[in-house]
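Handout, section B. The chain below has 216 residues.
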Amino acid sequence: MNNHHDNPSSASTPTEDAAGQAAVQTSAQASADEARGTTVRPWFKKKFFVLSLAVVLAIMIILAVNSRSHTATVTSPPKAKATVAAGIGTQVRDGTFEFVVTGVEYPGKTFMGKVGEKLTAKGEFVIVRVNVTNVGKQDQRLGCSCQILFNDKGQKIAPSPAILRTKDALKYVVYISPGDTVKGAAVLFDVAPGTKLLNIELHASPSSAGVKVKLT
């Protein structure tokens, strides 16, 4: 009868089996922890998201700064306002013209125009007499609708078209040569009865700032 002996090298001891199972469990636990960490990690903590958000915020800040700079660049400067000088008899200047207001006349509802023509106002006429000297280098005329009368309420009144039918119409429309002066030119206005005058704004041209002369 043959005796059967187990080979010691092929048999596993209880200690070895326990160690192997522990290693397997540790490896499985590590894999599970890694998988769980990847799964439950908040999306907003991911590196690519944080980087993208930083880029977007930087772009928004740059656009906001550029927008404010552009707004400041295109802002138009305020228009120059007409200066207020002394009253009647004072020499004032606007552009290439020097003006002296010599007086104000109140002919009323009607007065005689050129060639015996009778002029009638819708309200009543006011005439502002002005001496005008051309201190520029080119011929220029006084006549334009930019000569503005102001009443005590700040309302603007443009010259009456009837000015071209007055005896002094030529002084209003003639071109004044450099160095020459036109005396007693009439600037005619048609105002509501009882209007209280404040000042007149005289211009060398429609685009000039103008200069105001007090009439009271």
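Note. Residues 14-74 form one domain. Compare this with the example in section A.
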